[in-house]
DNA sequence: CAAGATAGTCTGTGAGGCAGAACATCTTGC
DNA sequence: GCAAGATGTTCTGCCTCACAGACTATCTTG
């Protein structure tokens, strides 16, 4: 390396860094969410478990864990708490006796509904600096990135791959 | 509450949740970033410290800590490692002898430059499902949210408030 | 039926962050 | 100029929390 001429272009400013912006926004969102879900077992993740279990597409512990990006061993005590609070039930999956289907109790659905509304309000406050149209754009772009679907619905997505790499490998 | 009729509207699907999308994208980004900065003391945050220190606007430990959202006590050992690797120096601030100015060494600037380029490539791969114009839009919207500036440059931003609430209170 | 994969649970352990105190220095009010 | 409080940095102790690994039960494949 000695004697090598290194062209040091001026690096980007910090606030041009996607990671920085993502981190900051995520952190702020997490912070407001924590206030909204105060008292809910598991905090923000407790809410996400409720939401994931409720929409029914996936409902076994492992499926929910993967979707939310939490370790499967964490789901155990997350669900212990939610079940203890009477918000969800673990039901044996009739098709696979190893698996448990997570279903919301009536109280769980009410709670989820209430949290949903309040979280949505909090999000709008968080997105306040953006024009209404821009908020929708941001939501849509993030959603497409997270679900791994391109504009045409194509699914060539690194986010999904990275997520997959994080859990099972 | 007994007897109250609760209208349970169908809650949003999980993938309509901003928090879910943010979390997933952030996690995926973090994961790719970790690979790129493998070997750098402090991991992704080490990079961010370098980037923040380099652009010079803020350079004391506390200012960097606040910008990055890390605890001030964490900055101490983060910088210990970076300084040990010869990437930054702690210089006494001539204007305030309590404070240390964090400046990059020549090696630090080279390293930052290299990381910058590789991270930018990784980000583009991550944003691949979006059209090029959409990627710029996403970057811009996130940047504006994170910096707390509206379209007109106005600064009425909850992200900044929440970030502020997290550290000093 | 045997062998391997998968769902869930439990236990131990280690990293990592936060609170709080200590110390040095700056600032403000008098 | 001095006392009192605020601010920047470091250090210590504690405590949470997530992950690895082992274990059981069940499914799947050959």
**Count of distinct strands of chain A:** 2
**What structural category arises from helix and sheet content of chain A?**
mainly alpha
Strands of the largest sheet of chain A, in order across it? 1-2
Q: How does the overall form of chain A come out from the CA principal axes? A: globular
Q: What's the CATH H-level superfamily name of the largest domain in chain A?
A: Winged helix-like DNA-binding domain superfamily/Winged helix DNA-binding domain
CATH architecture designation of the largest domain in chain A: Orthogonal Bundle
Q: How many DSSP H or I helices of chain A? A: 7
Oligomeric state, counting identical vs distinct chains: homodimer
Mean pLDDT value of chain A: 84
Would you list the SSEs of chain A in sequence order as H and E?
A: HHHHEEHHH
Q: Mind summarizing the main beta sheet of chain A? A: 2 strands, antiparallel
What is the number of domains of chain A? Answer: 2
- Uncertain ranges of chain A: 1-10, 152-156
Report how far apart the termini of chain A are. Answer: 36 Å
Taken as a percent bin, the fraction of beta residues of chain A is: 5-15%
CATH level 3 topology of the largest domain in chain A = Arc Repressor Mutant, subunit A
Radius of gyration of chain A from CA coordinates: 20 Å
Name of the level-1 CATH class of the largest domain in chain A: Mainly Alpha
Give the % helix of chain A. 55-70%
